Amino acid sequence: MRPASFEYHRATSLEHALELLAEFGEDGRPIAGGQSLVPMMNFRLARPGHLVDINKLPLNSIESDGQMLRIGALTRHIAYFDNPLIARHFPAFLDAVHYIGHPTIRRNGSIGGSISHADPTAELAAVCVLYDAEIIARSTAGERRIRAGEFFLSAYVTALEPGEMVVGVELPVPPSSSTGSFIELAERSGDFATAAIGVSIEFSSGRITRASIVCSGADLVPIRAREAEDFLQGKPLDAAEASEAARLFATSIDPVDDHIASADYRRGLIGKLTQRAIEAACNRALDK
Amino acid sequence: MIDITLEVNGVTKTLQVEPRRLLADVLREEFRLSGVHIGCAHGACGCCTVHLDGTPRLSCLTFAAQCDGASIRTVESIGGPNAEHMLQQAFKSEHGLQCGYCTPGFIMTLVPFVEEMVGQKRMPNDAEIREAMSGNICRCTGYHGIVAAVRKAVGTRLESGV
Amino acid sequence: MKAERPRHIGARIQRFEDIRLLSGSARYIDDIRLPDMLHLNFVRAETAHANILEVDTSGLADLDFPTWVFTGKDTAGLSMKAHQDYPEMQYSEQPLLAEGKVRFVGEPVAVVLAEDAYKAEDAAELVFVDYDPLPVVGNMAQARDPESTPLFEGWNGNVIVQRQMKGGDLEAAKAQAAHVIRRTYRTQRQAGVPMEGRGVVASFDKATRVLTVWSSTQMPHLVRTYISEELGLPESRIRVVAPDVGGGFGVKGQVFADEILVAWLAMQTGRPVKWIENRREHLIASIHARDHEHTLEAYVSADGRLLGLTADITVDNGAYSTYPFTSAGEPGMVGKVLPGPYDFQAYEATFRAVATNKCAIGTYRGVARPSAVFSQERLMDDIAAELGLDPVEFRLKNIIRQFPYRNVLGFTYDPGSYAEALEQIRELVANDVAEAKASHACAKTRIGVGIACFIEQTAHGTPDFTRRRVPIETGYIAARLDMSPDGEVTIDLGLQNHGQGLETTMAQVAADALGIGPENVFVRHGDTMTTPYSVGTWGSRGGPLGGGAVHIAATKIADKLRAIASHLLQAKPDQIELSDGKASVRDKPGSFIEIRKLARIAQRNVEQLPEGMTPGLEAHASLDGPADGSYANAVHAAVVEIDIETGKTKLRRFVVVEDCGTILNPLVVDGQVRGGVVQGIGSAMFEHFIYDEECQPLTTSFADYLMPLAPEIPNIEVHHIETPTPLTPLGAKGLGEGGAIGPAAAIANAVANALGVSVASTPLNTNAVWKLAQHIRDAN
User: Fold this and answer.
1) Of B43, B74, B105, at which residue does a domain stop?
2) Pairwise CA distance, residues A58 & A69, whole Å
3) 3-state secondary structure labels for all residues of C649-712
4) Ramachandran class of C282: left when φ > 0, alpha when ψ lies in -120 to 50, beta otherwise
5) How many CB pairs under 8 A join A and B?
6) How far A111 CA sits from the closest chain B CA (Å)?
7) A276 in a domain, yes or no?
8) Is A268's Cβ below 8 Å from some Cβ in C?
9) Contacting residues for C637 by C-beta, under 8 A, at least 6 apart
10) Which of A50, A158, C208, C412 is deepest in the core (most CB within 10 A)?
11) What is the distance in angstroms between the Cα of B159 and the nearest Cα belonging to chain C?
12) Taking the complete model, does pTM exceed 0.90, yes or no?
């Protein structure tokens, strides 16, 4: 269980990395932490002819200008734990990171790697969709910004073209009267989620003014619960109708039936997690 | 083939490797470090954990070629041939190992955790200890002795004030 | 003959093996490196049932590095033959490499060797196999259909073996019964997964004509015997070495085709050959376990007395019969143990193994008993529920209390603490039971308490094996002890250590008999060149039989030391006490001689020996198990907390009360129990090896095959009762497997208690528990 042969290139700058990726096209892959890519290579399910090591690139940062939070692609998952920007403005993000893998994976995995791999239940993919993030991709042709909702196309398939790599993610900073939550259920701690729900709400005078809800596990990519979001608009923060919002969403999805879980269970679970995530977000809002 | 220079357990060596050689295999073969164990080769069991520039890292998910210039530590550098590091001694007294195959991975994962708790001057609770080792699978001990060993190690350090 | 004052037996001393394991200097199979070694990669079947049309190895010719390739044509005739000599058992063999046909995904079809392991894998990818698919026999129902395509030439359908066991008057029991309770229970297919996979290295020395085989095995002597018989070499020219072994759990307690194959390849190529199993191979092609369906029918009197039991048992065996326990082993074991610790004398069991296109079933910790006890204890709770009786009370009403007890099949149980253990557990979980009851009015969170009460036959002796007519004829363990002139002792042990602390516990036993310290005893094991012939470490016999053999041999040496001391000190031998490194005359302080000195005299200053005594301090002993084995008992209790709306089940508490007779080292015993319990928790809640309808394996990595991690496990409380058995020299019973036997039953009973439903199958993962809780959500 060892990889097929490949050629290894150490990128000394972003431009260098992009030149190499342009040269190798579909046969080239960037490698950061390798936590998602290398297992596939060891199983020989992924066989890139060229790996471009981007670990030395200066893409490890979390910055905000007040309007947008920009996270560099090489930011490791543990970086979010004691970042005041994330804690203050993106509580659902912080909740989500707690569910990622286990400590060593969190130390070494990167956001760029995670979303490029596009596992259907990757927490950071769900978070990007929840916050309407923009994925910033670069190639020798320049920069391309892709909305999270259009970035994840299917299981392990993204909108990245050959020669393109993710350099960062930008999330619009929610207003101060906002909060959120993220709840996941997996068989064991750190496992791939059976289902996960992220909620972000803006509120005013005891009512929800805007709601954003993302779900992993209903489909091959994270999806937004539009009907539930629309339903919650204007509803009070006592979350009395969280279960109705959840029901609206759960009845609209058509989850898969497989050896891991039944469609009925997925639907029931997603409904329940949706309700709980809404309630949790509302409780946090009431505490503020 | 790629030229790389690795500092492993304080010994620096330059060697030529195929890009696809896993760090785990290079440590075992070229550096003769039999304490690095491979349990799954897909990052799910933690047996192969080493320290790369001071941070725990799964050596089965790392290509040696990526580690040029890096400083690597394996279990052989923790406590020497007589396993004298106090976490190793705690594993021994609390029966935190049986067959020993997962043990180096647990040690490399938990040494930094013990340091972190000692730095914070506090005893972690059960949930925190178990979360810290949630990336390591043990099939023999049921984890009980390992949790006890962590508590013993932190407790001994806090008591002695070191 | 017991030691004067047991000091080291029962002491909680730290293990001698730990230093090398902790410092990274242990030597496992992948650490064996030989000059000119070739690395082996298997080409394995990717389809579950097919005729092989062609194995095309021509792609290897284009490679720029040397390779060696072998197929079933080269190994024709070499096979594993694991058969029980009954007319009811259909005969099959497992070829070392597939001959003309493949019968499960993962079956070895060819091997490719190269000088580098990575390149061997590259080369193996260039071998192309052309298959002509056959209809897949994918499950028990299909296998039992007489029209299903037989897996083997000349077979009649795919029932490998079907037999019966019975005792007592079942008709009378049925006639007297006021209640008849019939249930079907199902436990899922699992893999054993020690953290170290399997591996074999072999080397043939042309000069001495000695074949050396290193294998990560629990039974080196049996590997040697099979290689000898299959390859036609004398056993004296074969050396099998088990190096440090990273977990066995019975998975490594089989003799495997690849062990014979690697040995053969070393002889064919004239170079050392190494094969290290990867994790995917382990999951799909080593052995599986626990794939059972049991239908039980209990006959119960009006006042809740169990009168009789019938059982129909089916094991989904996979394609091949594993050596040495065969396909008949697993279902036969269920039939044998279902009577359990309960007092009834009418029983009939029909048991069968069926062949499917899956990996073979073999022995994995508990061996059929986790499934049998699941059925047994679920049934006890189901009966109690139907009769409106408290589950503990119902068990106490029926538990065996008088010993020795001859059970309905004629097996004799030695003394145990069955009722005491039940009563202790009841007290220990009393608060949880009350809390659980209070929660049963709640619709969001429910707490449940479940128990499992069971006995385990350990250390069974030769009659048990000859009765079964298995290829393995016996179960004894042998030890050879030697005290060198410096007073240090070496034990060459027929057991083989793979985590159970034998280098320490056996030293403790010898130390007590000889009056020296355990640190003066060096335990060697795993190497057939130096250790006496034994069956290996499995079947919970290390403590009782290994320890017993060591005790007997050490006592022989101790007797000789006493004889020498009595001669030199002018006392009677029965006045000599061996303790603290000295041989002293009882009641005569100051009159002693150091054991070290006696050892030197016995081998160097032999002029001081008594008249007629030959020099030397060595002894050999072998200990067979009692005819019916010795029965350990335990009760497990699980407390679960269930989120009714999501099915998420938290294991709040797990308690064990166990009795394995005399405890050699409490540290080791607690570790064995806890480790076994966590594997049992895996069986109950997480682990499921899944095939699709075409028998394609779906759980082929640790991302899909889920084992318990630390956060899922509560603090496991272990309490001991010690009822020494009269049947072994030290009073010890076996305990290696017990921890793994009870949890599935205890946890299932806890879930049933929490939800107020019957639970018929495992695993109880979140989806399964959610489904079981449907009626509670509906009512809300």
Assistant:
1) B74
2) 17
3) EEEEEEEEEEECECCCCHHHHHHHHHHHHHHHHHHHHHCCCCECCCCCECCCCCCCCCCCCHHH
4) alpha
5) 81
6) 17
7) yes
8) yes
9) C425, C428, C429, C432, C449, C450, C451, C452, C653, C654, C655, C656, C746
10) A158
11) 23
12) yes
CATH of the domain at B42: 3.10.20.30
Return residues 87-116 of B near C (CB < 8 Å): 88, 91-93, 95, 97-104, 107
β-pairing, C273-276 vs C38-44, is parallel
Interface of C with A in 665-694 (CB under 8 A): 686, 690, 692
Q: Residue C487 — pLDDT band, cuts 50, 70, 90?
A: very high
Do residues A68 and A101 share a domain?
yes
Rounded (10°) angle between helices C666-681 and C743-755: 50
Q: Which of B42, B74, B106 is the last residue of a domain?
A: B74
Angle at A213 between CA A210 and CA A214, to 5 degrees: 150
CATH of the domain at B134: 1.10.150.120
Backbone angles phi, psi at C685, to 5 degrees: -125, -25
Number of structural domains in chain B:
2
| The domain boundary residue, chosen from A124, A139, A172 | A172
Residue count (chain A):
288
Q: What band does C589 get if pLDDT is binned at 50, 70 and 90?
A: confident
A2: in domain: no
B1 and chain C in contact, CB less than 8 A: no
Tell me the CB-side half-sphere exposure of residue A155, using CA atoms within 13 A. 8
CA distance B29 to chain A (A): 15
pLDDT at C1 over 80: no
CATH of the domain at A45: 3.30.43.10
Given A155, A172, A189, which residue is the final one in a domain?
A172
Alpha-carbon torsion angle C320, C535, C672, C328, nearest 10: 30
**Considering just the CA atoms, what is the radius of gyration of chain B in Å?**
16
Structure-token pair, residue C56: 């095309």
CA distance A243 to B85: 54
Q: pLDDT tens digits for A21-54?
A: 999 999 999 999 999 999 999 999 999 999 999 9
- pLDDT at residue C86 tops 90: no
Residue C700: CB atoms within 10 Å: 20
Contact C706 A269 (CB under 8 A): no
Which residues span the domain enclosing B149?
79-160
Residues 6 or more apart from C660 whose CB is under 8 A from it?
C458, C543, C632, C669, C720, C732, C733, C734, C735, C738
Question: In C388-515, which residue ranges form alpha helices assigned H by DSSP?
Answer: 391-398, 418-428, 430-439, 462-468, 502-514
Which residue of C12, C19, C21 to mutate against B (max B Cβ within 10 Å)? C21
Q: Find chain B residues with C-beta within 8 A of A34's C-beta.
A: 61-63, 66
Task: Answer yes or no: are the C-beta atoms of C561 and C617 closer than 8 Å.
Answer: yes
Same domain, yes or no: A87 and A143? yes
Q: Does B66 contact A55 at a Cβ distance shorter than 8 Å?
A: yes
Contact (CB, 8 A) for C220 and C243: no
CA-CA distance, A257 to C454, in Å (whole number)?
38
Give the model's pLDDT for residue C313.
Answer: 98
Chain B CB within 8 Å of residue C11 CB: no
Domain that holds residue A226: 178-287
Phi and psi at residue C127, to the nearest 5° = -90, 125
Q: How far is CA C109 from CA A253, C101, C258, C670, in A?
A: 45, 9, 12, 43
Whether residues B44 and B111 fall in one domain = no
Q: What residues form DSSP beta bridges with A74?
A: none
Give the DSSP H/E element, type plus range, for residue A22: helix A14-24
Mean pLDDT of chain A: 96
Residues 311-340 of C with CB under 8 A from B: none
Match 């979140």 to its residue by tokens. C766
Question: Within this chain, do residues B86 and B52 fall inside the same structural domain, yes or no?
Answer: no
